[in-house]
Write a structure and sequence with these properties.
By secondary structure, the protein is an all-alpha fold. It has six helices and no strands. Helix 2 (20-42) packs antiparallel against helix 3 (49-62). The longest helix has 23 residues, at 20-42. The chain is elongated, with a radius of gyration of 16 Å.
Length: 128
């Protein structure tokens, strides 16, 4: 989603002249990752209630991506702020959920690695 956000911004800023093919490819990658996440959550209903609820809430937010993509495709310049805001907020929510889930990890080395990786992803989520 982070790459899709950047490409969407570039596509809109260029009035649809840049990132045309790259954006289509990235959307497919985002959709595949979305499907995998949904399957992972569905197959792990034994997660702590709070964690499971947060992931489901993140998936609900992701369901709005079709509407956001339509805004991008129509290249509405006045929608750019809304589009970037959607991606940034959704990514942040999902990252917050991952960070929160590290509290349930029993292995301290794995927990530290998850926290470090999540912090790395937070830095990438800051829009330029």
């Amino acid at each position: 989603m982070q790459k899709e956000r950047g490409m969407s911004a570039g596509f809109m800023a260029s009035n649809g002249k840049k990132f045309v093919n790259d954006l289509k490819e990235q959307r497919n990658l985002t959709d595949n990752a979305h499907k995998k996440l949904a399957q992972l959550i569905e197959n792990n209903k034994n997660l702590p209630k709070f964690t499971y609820h947060n992931y489901k809430k993140g998936l609900e937010s992701l369901s709005k991506i079709i509407q956001i993509r339509n805004e991008v495709d129509t290249k509405k310049q006045d929608a750019a702020k809304q589009v970037i805001g959607f991606y940034t907020a959704t990514i942040a929510f999902l990252l917050d959920s991952v960070l929160e889930s590290t509290k349930t990890i029993q292995d301290s080395l794995l927990a530290k690695a998850m926290i470090a990786y999540t912090n790395f992803l937070y830095q990438r989520n800051k829009p330029a």
